């Protein structure tokens, strides 16, 4: 059984190759030039463009890209699962379902199941990694399907951004919700609710924010000893490391893994973003 993933997962090309995943990269447009995520543009280039007051735009994977991958799955007679980026943040899931039906006209035996994960960044990446590990335990579709549905009910996303205007301008957050986090050192805390980005609260300074995050995680899971917590950041490793130290001390997780937010997601968050992904009980 093979997994199909897209740019919404924030997995690196190295991880995608190591896990032997089918990959549907998005496009990123800067100054009218479209570049393919991971292959032709890095997150550093995206963040530099934002600092230069340019406004990167993202394009979901094309129907042609999907048709090529889905046809390959069919001709190889593989069983595949596509864990797609949240439908509340992108049209990728809906497009994939449409393309699947088109491919099935020529390949009626196409064995592809598409999930709207309602997840993003390493929330989706964590799910993909865990499903890949579970496939080493069982090749039963029924068991994998139940595993995925169980994890989708438990995955949690918490994050903060330096400036909410990037999320608002990209349509990922309503302008009415984009309260000014840059004023008076106010730090917004957001999460993903039913696949969409939703503000939770505002805090005065990073220290109060980090402790609020720890308290929220403790309230949702009282045993992280077997849990790998994933963190991503956009040009803010120092703050991510501070939060990691607090989590290691307060939660005693199995491990905490920090990585960069990928080019597509950072196009919408801007720099100064720190995100945390874990399972609630």
Q: Total number of helical segments?
A: 10
CATH architecture label of the largest domain: 2-Layer Sandwich
Category from helices, strands and their pairing? alpha/beta
Instruction: Supply the number of structural domains.
Output: 2
> Which fold name is given in CATH as the topology of the largest domain?
Hypothetical Protein Tm841, Chain: A,domain 3
- Helix % is 25-40%
CATH class of the largest domain: Alpha Beta
Q: What order do the SSEs take from the amino end to the carboxyl end, as H and E?
A: EHEEEHEHEHEHHEHEEHEHEHE
In round numbers, the mean pLDDT is: 91
SS elements, strand count = 13
How far the N terminus sits from the C terminus, by CA atoms, comes to 28 Å
What does the main sheet amount to? 6 strands, mixed
Shape field: globular
Report low-confidence residues grouped into runs of 5 or more: 172-182
Tell me the Rg in angstroms.
19 Å
Strand content: 25-35%
């Amino acid at each position: 059984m093979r997994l199909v993933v897209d740019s919404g997962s924030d997995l690196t090309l190295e991880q995608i190759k190591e896990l032997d995943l089918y990959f549907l990269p998005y496009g990123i447009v800067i100054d009218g030039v479209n570049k393919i995520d991971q292959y032709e543009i890095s997150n550093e280039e995206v963040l530099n463009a934002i600092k230069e007051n340019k406004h990167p735009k993202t394009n979901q994977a094309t129907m042609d890209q999907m048709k090529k991958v889905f046809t390959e799955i069919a001709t190889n007679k593989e069983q595949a699962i596509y864990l797609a980026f949240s439908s509340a943040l992108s049209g990728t899931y809906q497009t994939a379902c449409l393309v699947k039906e088109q491919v099935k006209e020529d390949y009626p035996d196409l064995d592809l199941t598409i999930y709207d994960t309602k997840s993003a960044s390493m929330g989706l990446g964590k799910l993909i990694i865990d499903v890949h590990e579970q496939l080493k335990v069982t090749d039963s579709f029924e068991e994998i399907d139940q595993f995925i549905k169980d994890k989708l009910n438990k995955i949690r996303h918490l994050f903060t951004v330096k400036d909410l205007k990037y999320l608002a301008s990209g349509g990922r957050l309503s302008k009415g919700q984009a309260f000014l986090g840059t004023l008076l050192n106010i730090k917004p805390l957001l999460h993903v609710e039913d696949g969409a980005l939703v503000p939770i609260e505002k805090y005065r300074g990073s220290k109060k924010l980090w402790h609020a995050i720890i308290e929220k995680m403790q309230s949702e899971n009282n045993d992280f000893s077997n849990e790998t917590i994933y963190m991503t950041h956009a040009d803010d490793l120092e703050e991510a490391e501070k939060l990691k130290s607090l989590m290691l001390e307060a939660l005693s997780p199995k491990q905490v893994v920090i990585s960069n937010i990928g080019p597509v997601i950072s196009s919408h968050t801007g720099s100064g973003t720190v995100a945390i992904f874990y399972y609630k009980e």
